[in-house]
């Protein structure tokens, strides 16, 4: 456990400080108790020898003062440590997450990460500071007492020595059970949380179906399961707890029986027997107290595993001598094969042997049926994932050789599902370039046709867009994203055009904004196109099907070829006319 905690805190100075203090206190406690032996030997005689007892009493008094001072220091150090450890652990997690492939950030992983950074890191740090100390005390005090007992009577010392590992094994079992039970409970709690969210979101449907008060069956099942697992967990923890307490009690009875036996047989003096029985109580007491900490230790074990599982995720490999400059804004795929599960997953690749080139300053439209690999192409250009074989080159350099921040600086991405922060429009745009001037902001907004939206908003540029941009429509959010791309002035722009039907105003604004991005000869644009207007203006069209390139050519060439592109083009045209006349 200590090794694991060491791994979690890369600069464990604070842990060392905290634990050294606790260890010093524990050893001091054991030694102070050991002073009972010479003191009782000197005083428990027919003629008490005060002169012989005095030096030990003085040493004991000094030891007690030192113990009191260290205890006073340890309390605030413990409190401050819990907070500092949480901050350090959170920074460590955040630093690691920034090195992970962007493809790691699925909805699941985002949820897991947010829980790990908030509650898991906080509770683990708290437990490390509060339970780690007593756990050291509970181990070191008995260990010191064994040492002292060896000096007085090796037979009783051996008895204590045998009790210690048996008690620790029983304790280990107890806390492993706690960890397993916590795991089980977490699964049930997550299920309840997911069902509760679903229950909230499904309210309109439930009400329409007349089940608003009875709730959804899935929610009730999740709550039943949670209750069931909780009860089962309590039963599972009962036996290990009892077996640990049993070992501790048996150890105490054995010391008592053998101590009295040695006294009666004359091999142990009265003062030594009294001192050793007191020591035996203090030996077993902290061991007994460990059971109170077992659930905390079990939880620490479980929480450390949760943090480690994030930290174990391999970072995006980086080249030892990364290239920091792009030659130009070209994009090239050479025989690229890629599977989301990796080359050994045995799944059908999302892209197979894909090769194409986008010369600098051109616009390429990606088309193809759903699942054909269009989004995957854009993700690989931005190196969200590493490919299985082939090369993805940006600016003539393989993306694996490029410095990753430099690659991302050169690319602007307009997602279909745009994420906006719950802050003002201005701040949402400034994410693309924090030091942009007002002229640059206004320019970008005008090009993206966002200025019309801003004019309509009550607070103009300072209007807050709400959680995840909920105050804006899908088309308006995409205009913010396009404005960010203009503001960033990246030479490469990747666009996932909104596939859903937009109102005519947003539709024409977005088409014009994309056309403006494409018109700039300094930009290379790859657009996942869903509208005939976007397709018509592209320099090159790549039609994908089942992860392979089905056709490649200019829009005019492919329209005449009567292949995949022509079929999709006619479908888009048809859908559009249907949408307009409907
Ligand atoms: N994160 C992922 N993990 C595993 N498989 C994925 C992931 N994303 C996409 N896929 C799979 O990869 C294949 C290509 O998906 P991709 O999203 O690139 O297609 P697309 O042409 O963009 O589809 P759409 O038009 O529906 O967005 C599909 O079979 C899809 O199920």
TrEMBL record:
One of its GO terms (molecular function) is ATP binding. Residues 331-571 form the ABC transporter domain. It is found in: Cell membrane. Residues 21-299 form the ABC transmembrane type-1 domain. InterPro entries: AAA+_ATPase (IPR003593), ABC1_TM_dom (IPR011527), ABC1_TM_sf (IPR036640), ABC_transporter-like_ATP-bd (IPR003439), ABC_transporter-like_CS (IPR017871), P-loop_NTPase (IPR027417), Type_1_exporter (IPR039421). Keywords: ATP-binding, Membrane, Nucleotide-binding, Transmembrane, Transmembrane helix. It is a multi-pass membrane protein. Pfam families: ABC_membrane, ABC_tran. The chain crosses the membrane at residues 21-44, 56-87, 131-150, 156-175, 242-264. This is ABC transporter ATP-binding protein. It comes from Prauserella endophytica.
């Amino acid at each position: 456990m200590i090794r694991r905690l060491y791994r979690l805190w890369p600069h464990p100075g604070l842990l060392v400080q905290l634990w050294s203090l606790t260890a010093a206190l524990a050893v001091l406690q054991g030694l102070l108790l050991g002073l009972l032996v010479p003191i009782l030997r000197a005083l428990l005689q027919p003629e008490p020898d005060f002169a012989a007892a005095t030096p030990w009493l003085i040493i004991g008094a000094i030891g007690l003062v030192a113990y009191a001072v260290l205890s006073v220091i340890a309390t605030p150090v413990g409190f401050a440590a819990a907070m500092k450890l949480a901050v350090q652990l959170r920074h460590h997690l955040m630093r690691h997450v920034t090195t992970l492939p962007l493809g790691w950030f699925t909805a699941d992983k985002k949820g897991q990460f947010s829980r790990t950074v908030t509650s898991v890191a906080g509770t683990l740090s708290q437990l490390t500071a509060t339970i780690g100390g007593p756990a050291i005390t509970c181990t070191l005090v008995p260990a010191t007492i064994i040492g002292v007992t060896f000096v007085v009577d090796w037979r009783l010392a051996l008895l204590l020595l045998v009790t210690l590992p048996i008690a620790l094994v029983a304790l280990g079992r107890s806390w492993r059970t706690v960890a397993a039970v916590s795991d089980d409970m977490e699964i049930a709690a997550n299920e309840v949380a997911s069902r509760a969210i679903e229950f909230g979101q499904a309210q309109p449907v439930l009400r329409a179906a007349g089940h608003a008060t009875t709730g959804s069956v899935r929610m009730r099942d999740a709550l039943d399961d949670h209750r069931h697992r909780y009860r089962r967990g309590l039963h599972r923890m009962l036996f290990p707890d009892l077996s640990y307490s049993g070992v501790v009690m048996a150890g105490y009875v054995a010391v008592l029986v053998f101590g009295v036996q040695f006294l009666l047989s004359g091999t142990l003096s009265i003062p030594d027997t009294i001192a050793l029985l007191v020591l035996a109580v203090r030996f077993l007491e902290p061991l007994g107290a460990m059971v109170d900490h077992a659930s905390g230790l079990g939880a620490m074990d479980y929480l450390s595993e949760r943090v480690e599982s994030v930290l174990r995720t391999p970072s995006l490999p980086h080249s030892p001598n990364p290239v920091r400059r792009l030659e130009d804004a070209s994009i090239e795929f050479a025989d690229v094969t890629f599977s989301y599960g990796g080359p050994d997953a045995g799944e059908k690749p999302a892209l197979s042997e894909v090769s194409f080139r986008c010369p600098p300053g051109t616009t390429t439209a990606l088309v193809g049926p759903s699942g054909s690999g269009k989004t995957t192409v854009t993700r690989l250009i931005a190196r969200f994932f590493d490919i299985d074989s082939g090369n993805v080159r940006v600016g003539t350099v393989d993306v694996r050789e490029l410095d990753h921040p430099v690659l991302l600086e050169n690319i602007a991405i307009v997602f279909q599902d745009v994420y906006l922060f719950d802050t003002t429009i201005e701040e949402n745009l400034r994410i693309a370039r924090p030091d942009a001037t007002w002229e640059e902001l206004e320019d970008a907004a005008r090009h993206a046709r966002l200025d019309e939206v801003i004019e309509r908003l009550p607070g103009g540029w300072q209007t807050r867009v709400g959680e995840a941009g909920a105050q804006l429509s899908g088309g308006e959010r995409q205009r913010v994203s396009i404005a960010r791309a203009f503001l960033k002035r990246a030479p490469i722009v990747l666009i996932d055009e909104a596939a859903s039907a937009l109102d005519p105003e947003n539709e024409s604004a977005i088409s014009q904004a994309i056309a403006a991005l494409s018109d700039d000869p300094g930009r290379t644009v790859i657009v996942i196109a869903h509208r005939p207007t976007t397709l018509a203006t592209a320099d090159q069209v790549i039609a994908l099907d089942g992860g392979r390139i089905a056709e490649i050519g200019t829009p005019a060439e492919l329209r005449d070829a009567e292949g995949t592109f022509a079929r999709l083009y006619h479908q888009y045209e048809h859908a559009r006319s249907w949408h307009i006349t409907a």
